[in-house]
Design brief:
By secondary structure, the protein is mostly helical. It is 73% helix and 0% strand.
């Protein structure tokens, strides 16, 4: 349990660092999923009455949306960059819905 907690803490720190230096939304969502994973581990360490079955179900649950956020965000970022590199006007509506957090 503790090695997995340490690994998730390292991942959380990495995702938070990426989220703070990025100008996109998906790293924030990924960091939020990592935070929930770490909170699940800490609740188990604090032994606040979580049954082992619920703990084992929750400890890997947030990895799926985290990976989906990363894949979707990276895919949309790559499409946006390739479209904007062509200089043919505004990007399609799907790509405009993936906003920047702050302009560069």
């Amino acid at each position: 349990m503790y090695p997995l907690l340490m690994l998730d803490l390292i991942c959380l720190l990495g995702f938070v660092t990426i989220a703070l230096t990025s100008d996109r939304w998906w790293p924030l969502w990924t960091a939020a999923c990592a935070l929930v994973q770490v909170a699940t581990h800490l609740a188990s360490v604090a032994q606040i009455g979580i049954s082992p079955a619920i703990y084992h179900g929750l400890k890997g649950l947030w990895a799926i949306p985290m990976q989906l956020f990363m894949v979707r965000g990276i895919t949309l970022d790559a499409r946006y960059r390739s479209f904007s590199n062509q200089n043919i006007g505004d990007p399609p509506a799907l790509l405009r819905t993936w906003p920047r957090i702050w302009p560069r």
